[in-house]
Amino acid sequence: AIIVDSAVVANLIQEQLPQYAHLEVSELKSPGTVNRIFRLGTDFVCKFPFLPTSREDLETESRNFKEFSENCSFLVPQLVKILNPTNSYPSHWSVYTYIEGEAMTTESHQDSSTAAKNVGELICEIKQRPPKEHVFKGQGRGGLLLNHDEDFRTYCEQGVGLFEVEGTLAIWDVVKNLPAPNNLSMCHGDLQPQNLLVRESRIIGVLDCGSYRVADPALDLLFAWHAFDSQRRAIVRETVGVDEEEWLRGAAWALVQSVGLAKYYETTNPQMSIMGINTINKILNSEEFLHTIPIKTQESGSH
User: Which pTM value belongs to this model?
Assistant: First the structure.
C-alpha cells in the first residue's frame, strides 16, 4: 500500500491545487479497503488509492458516480478533479465534493425501520434504470453463484476458528444451486454500510458508486444482511418487493463477500473482518436458513 498522511496531502494540494492551499487537511477514518480519505476544507474530500491507479480507472469511476447520481434521488459526491502522480505520491488521485453526514456502521442503525425503508427505496431506484448490457461482464460478485464455489471453500478452510464453517458450508451447498436470475439489472455493486450517509436515521447520500454495473438483481440485497436485524431485513425485502429466490440469492452474495472478508482482513482491517463474521452469524441464525444447518446431536459429539 502507498503510505500518505496529512502533511503529504497538504504539500500535494499546494503543488497541484494552489487555489485550495489555504484549506485545512484532515484524515477521515474509514474501514474502506480501496482509498485513504482526507477532508479538504468544508466542501471537498481527497481520495488516495492504496494501490497505484491509472487516470483511466479514476475516469471510469467518476463516470459511474455521475451515471449513478443521474438516476438516484439520494446525494452523491461529484468529481472535482483527477490529479497526477508525484514523487511523494506515485499514483493518480482525485478530489470530490463533500457531503455532510454520518457514515453508517454495521451496528449504528440495525434496528432503524426508517433506515431500512430508505435502503429498500434506494435499491428500487437503482434497479429501475434499464440495464446497459444483458450479460454480466464484471469480475467478482454479481454473476453466477456457482462460479464462486472454489474460492468459497478455500475461504472457509482459512476461516476455521473465526466462524462456524460447517454450518456456513451447509447453507452454501443449498444456495449456490439456486436458479440464475431471468434478467440482470443495474446494481450499486458494493452496497456496504460505510458507503451510505445518514442524518437523523434517514439515508441521505451514497458515498461510493465506483462498482455501479449490470449484475444479478439480488446483489445489492446483501446490504440488508450486513446492516440490519431480522425485523428490519423484512422491511427491506418488502420495500424492494422480491420473491423468495431473489431474497435467498441476496443472502448468498452476502455469504460470498463475508467469508472473504473474515480471514483476508483479520489483521489488516479488523472492522471489515468483524463485519464479515457478524453477517455470517446473522445468516446462520436466520429463520430462512435454520432448517439447513446440520444439527449436532449429543451422540455425534461424544466420540
Answer: 0.89
